[in-house]
Amino acid sequence: MVKEVGAGLSAKTMLKLRDAGVTIVDVAGKGGTDFGKIENHRRDGGHDDYSYLNGFGGSAVQCLLDARAAGLVGPGADPGFTVLSSGGVRHPLDIMVSLALGARAVGVAGTFLKVALNEGADAMTSVLETWSTRVGEMMALLGATSPAAMEYTDVLIGGQSRDFADVRGIDRAALARRSQEDR
């Protein structure tokens, strides 16, 4: 397994990894751990500064859109190559978006770590139960009977991800009407 460290994996990189024999990748998009900031905290400052890289990279959504355009996720994708998603997951809706864009699983770190460290194990258990319930509720609202079925729900892409999709030639309209397709 290869996991990015907060700047996201492009489809080009994922294809190279797959061709090299890697079977699982985690796109780990920006929005979670920011290693530019971490490196700055380790340094004395001055001319050895990485602050210009704060926030650098692609979001998990952008990485998954790129992977979909390259045929790495979605219908017809190689079942022997698995794409996971993490980076900037703040609430259950972020999980749903990643699943809808083709991630097979979604990792959550910082959001849960803050609860565990600041509020303890009981609070963390409660948060996990709540998130699990919310994901199930959203799947029911969307008519998805499993996480994998999220790939057939409609997705509207906006903001920076819309701009990303447009310049990459990704058909946002097709994503927005997937539920109308015959399966």
Descriptive overview:
- This protein is mainly α and 183 residues long.
- Helix content is 45%, strand content 4%.
- It has 8 helices and 3 strands.
- Strands 1-2-3 form a 3-stranded parallel β-sheet, with helices on one face.
- Helix 3 (60-69) runs parallel beside helix 7, helix 4 (92-100) crosses helix 6 (121-142) and helix 5 runs antiparallel to helix 6 (121-142).
- The mean pLDDT is 92.
Task: Detail the topology: elements first, then pairings.
Elements: E1 2-3, H1 11-19, E2 24-26, H2 35-42, H3 60-69, E3 82-84, H4 92-100, H5 110-119, H6 121-142, H7 159-168, H8 172-176
Parallel strand pairs: 1-2, 2-3
Largest beta-sheet characterization? 3 strands, parallel
Give the helix/strand class.
mainly alpha
Compressed to H and E, one letter per element, the order equals EHEHHEHHHHH
State the helicity in percent bands. 40-55%
Uncertain stretches: none
Strand content: under 5%
Major beta sheet, strand line-up: 1-2-3
Give the overall average pLDDT: 92
Cα gyration radius (Å): 17 Å
Number of helices, counting only DSSP H or I runs of 4 residues or more: 8
Number of strands: 3
The span between the termini is 31 Å
Shape type: globular
